[in-house]
Amino acid sequence: MRHLLTLVASALLLAVPVVSAQAAEKALVILVSMDGFRADYLDRGITPNLSRLAAEGARGTVRPSFPSKTFPNHYSLVTGLRPDRHGIVDNTMRDPAIPGVVFKMSDKAAVTDPRWWNDGTPLWVSAERAGLKSATLFWPGSEADIQGVRPSYWRPFDQSLPPEARVDQVLAWLDLPQAERPAFVTLYFDETDTAGHHHGPDSALLNAAVTRTDAAIGRLVAGLAARGLAANLVITADHGMAATSPERAIYLEDIVAPDAGERLGMGAFMTMTPAPGREAEVEKALLKRHKHMTCWARGKFPARLHYGHHRRVPPIFCLAQTGWEITTRDWVAKRPIGGGNHGFDPHAPEMTAVFVAHGPRIRRGVKLRTADNVDVYPLLAHLLGVAPEETDGALSRLQRALDR
Ligand code: AMP
Ligand code: ZN
Ligand code: ZN
């Protein structure tokens, strides 16, 4: 009897890894971001791979969160929280609780410091806590041990790593033995954003970048097929791109004295913290009607922007009309306006991002309504089988993408 029990127990033990291996295979979820990939780039007839995935899967569009910049929106995609709640309120910011530091995307000390990121729980943290492995081939936040947890596999951001090498690294992680293979993977491409800034959303060079990114997606799909891996792919972007022009400049020095406060950023928006004693002067100059710019005091943003309460939001925030740039004459002398930019109102059609989902759990041939980018997180958590954290999004808006 005892012998029989041992036999049954070892059979069960043997069976367990097989069952969980199948479950893990089913759960493979790959989140791809193509930075600045505007929704309509998919209609240009230059993306054979993405277009096929869209035709065989679900296609929609995604509205970015405010402000429509890279770091805030990548973090919204993986946390399901608005920037005002996850705390990455801008690419460049200060925090009264971290005095003397300006957070910048290019500052390794800042991007690896979990204090900037801890207000949000990215999906890779939840996956790791649930016993799943995660891998990030670049994603804002992935270089910090957020709430004490890191992805099992990650690499420091390296913009010079070619798209093919990024795909190959992801495939190499998927070649790991079953027990070590990641179930949740992020993959990031930046060429479409860079080309959009330099040459504008309607240029031949932007189209060439779109086609190169599409080819990298094709390489990923072929690599997965060669390995017999059925992945649920969610391919999206952080924001779109609007054409800018030297004719659409707002000169700051015509509005407020440059030394009246600390300005962070310029372009689609700028923020200002008045110098001590100059609050009234700055408020009077900025918080009035402007022809091509709207300024708000912290706490006074329209509700639809879901912004303006986090302690990191500066006292005054000025947003340019879509396609206009806030600048100074000194600055344009060095860097003439042209090409494209983002950071504009998320409700402007030019800011809308692409959304394509494809895989065993995704319905074929579905066209989705525009979702908010915080809605992507509940979909990802559902596909992965991980309990979602509290979110500003809703699964209902992308639910039609699901097969069952
Ligand atoms: P943006 O100014 O909002 O257009 O930001 C786009 C830029 O963000 C890219 O060109 C990259 O240089 C940078 N970037 C994207 N991901 C990361 C990352 N994980 N770490 C550091 N910088 C990044
Ligand atoms: Zn971006
Ligand atoms: Zn950009």
Question: What can you tell me about this protein's structure?
Answer:
It is a single chain. Mean pLDDT is 94; it is low at 1-25. This protein has two domains: 2-241 and 346-401, Alkaline Phosphatase, subunit A, CATH 3.40.720.10; 246-337, Gyrase A, domain 2 (2-Layer Sandwich), CATH 3.30.1360.180. It starts with a helix and ends in a 20-residue tail after the last helix. The protein is α/β, with parallel strands linked by helices and 404 residues long. The chain is globular, with a radius of gyration of 23 Å. The chain is 31% helix and 17% strand. A hairpin with a 4-residue loop joins strand 9 and strand 10 (269-274). It has twelve helices and 17 strands. The strands form four sheets. Strands 1, 2, 3, 4, 5, 6, 15, 16 and 17 form a nine-stranded mixed beta sheet that branches. Strands 9-10-12-11 form a four-stranded antiparallel beta sheet. The protein has helices at 2-27, 48-56, 70-79, 83-86, 108-111, 123-129, 163-174, 191-199, 204-226, 279-286, 329-334, 376-384; strands at residues 29-34, 58-63, 134-137, 153-154, 184-189, 232-236, 242-243, 249-251, 261-264, 269-274, 293-297, 316-320, 325-327, 340-341, 353-358, 366-367, 371-372. The longest helix is centred in the N-terminal third of the chain and has 26 residues, at 2-27.
Tally the helices: what do you get? 12
The end-to-end distance, rounded to whole angstroms, is 44 Å
For the secondary structure, the number of strands is: 17
CATH class call of the largest domain: Alpha Beta
What overall geometry do the principal axes of the alpha carbons give? Answer: globular
Mean pLDDT: 94
The name of the CATH architecture of the largest domain is 3-Layer(aba) Sandwich
Number of domains: 2
CATH topology of the largest domain: Alkaline Phosphatase, subunit A
